[in-house]
Amino acid sequence: MTLVNRSLITIDDLSYGEIEALFKLADEMAGAMDEQHGLCRGKIMASLFFEPSTRTRLSFETAMHRLGGNVITAADVGATSLAKGESIADMAKVVGSYVDMIVIRHPWEGAAKVVADYSGVPVINAGDGGHQHPTQTLLDLYTIKKEKKTLKGLKIGLWGDLKYGRTIHSLIFALAKFGANILFYPTPGLEVPEHILEKLTLEYGGELEKHKSLDPAAKEKLFPLDAIYLTPSSPHQLAMMPDVNIQVELKTGIDALYVTRPQKERFTTAEKGKELREKYPVVDKKLLKSKEFRRTLVMHPLPRVDELARELDADPRSMYFKQAARGVPVRMALIALLLGAKDVAIPQEKAPPITYPVYRRDYGPRCPNPRCVSVQETEVKYVRPEFKVVNRRPLTLRCIYCEHGFEPEYVASSDWHEGKTATKKYHSAASHWARKIRTENLIVFRSNKDAESLGFKPSRYVKVRHRRKGTPK
Ligand code: NCD
After folding, report:
1. What is the CA(304)–ligand 1 centre distance, in A?
2. Is residue 449 pLDDT above 60, yes or no?
3. Which of 52, 255, 331, 385 has the fewest CB atoms found within 10 Å of its own CB?
């Protein structure tokens, strides 16, 4: 197995073994930073940053320079033809014809995937809206592993804006991949989106305990702990834990607390109005005094605003500047592997990656996420809506660009009715009739209006309602 010519769009693009191999190479490079400049000589990397960045852009560019390669950069949409209405797909084709690799940050979720689809060169996602930021996750994991030796069975607390924090979204899956338990401490109103939690348990196994106040005693110092993810790979006290035991278990210590700033640039008008900022307590020495934080690594992707007190900078538990520094060797290893300048032995994975049937039609639903690249006006000509059918009961589709999921209300079958307009019928997706439709024949509709505008008529199974989660059978 090799990483040559691959792209890194979400953290799922790398297996456990590949990440381990990458870390080994990062270690080697970190120990001999000045000896790597022959590796990528003659190679060019485009660094396209259409959202603010200090660390990510500069550490990628430093990494490429240290490998002896060259960098071209565009850091302002206004200075590129995107401002003239050029599509990301066209830009990707052009830039891909100039360089050997593209690193892109963009506000639209799924933008990096479009670049990977059209550029013909390896692409690294340096942050696509609130979706993912896989290289930040690599250096976060690398840091935890360096400090704690392993990730297996650790308890990692995620704190703050868990709704829009893309570093959080990538980190959740990586922690699960490495067998860590996750404690969720969201700012009230900024909880982890449901589609991410669903993917977590569906694809990584484990259990999610969700309660309003799992840890009520901690309320005055922390955001309330609103959920715990229990890894399947390390049988642990936590796994058998009824709520009462949680506090006892937490007293044994949290291994890392990953703090994030409120991602105000992504707040809706309503969220801005709610002054979520006011509810953002500061992580400081006082908070970290209690027993469970005695050996806790204090992490942050940076930039911090007010949520992390400066008095912690000299505290040996603080990791955030180390994290940022480690971004260089980790990104050097990644670039060298994707460009084929280095090869590493990658162990064969035990479990094959999960594959889902794909839903792709010329007409039909668009992704419900307004920030998804597939619904942006300049992109709709190039980016065809495409979904993975991740569940049949309830029928659930997941956008291949931004990974938002949705449960369509109505369905029809291409097999039963194709060509016979008089009998084109649509059914409630929750009806037993709908479940008889083979996945490859599915046609889905977000509303009955959509179905009827395509010439489908309601069947007698159209009124069956979805049973909402938690309602009695
Ligand atoms: C993060 C990002 O851009 O998502 N920063 C980074 O890359 N180090 C976190 C943030 O902006 O809050």
Report:
1. 9
2. yes
3. 52
Residue with CA closest to ligand 1 atom 8? 301
Residue 373, in any domain of the structure: yes
Q: Which domain holds residue 36?
A: 11-133+328-338
Q: Is residue 390 part of a domain?
A: yes
244 vs 133, residue with greater confidence: 133
Does the reported pTM lie above 0.90? Answer: yes
Question: Which is the closest atom of ligand 1 to the Cα of 327?
Answer: 8
Domains: count for the chain: 3
pLDDT at 84: 82
- 147 Cα: distance to centroid of ligand 1 (angstroms): 22
Write the CATH number for 49.
Answer: 3.40.50.1370
238 and 301 together in one domain: yes
- Lowest-confidence segment of 175-189, 228-242, 257-271, 424-438 by average pLDDT: 228-242
Q: Which residue ranges have their beta carbon within 6 Å of ligand 1?
A: 55-56, 127, 133, 136, 166-167, 260-261, 301-303
- Ligand 1 centre to CA of 260 (Å) is 9
Indicate if 99 and 183 belong to the same structural domain: no
Cα(152) to ligand 1 centroid in Å equals 25
Indicate the pairing of strand 358-359 with strand 425-428. Answer: unpaired
Task: Report the relative pairing of strands 425-428 and 410-413 from DSSP bridges.
Answer: antiparallel
Distance CA 473, CA 141 (A): 42
pLDDT in tens, 402-443: 999 999 999 999 886 555 556 789 999 999 989 999 999 999
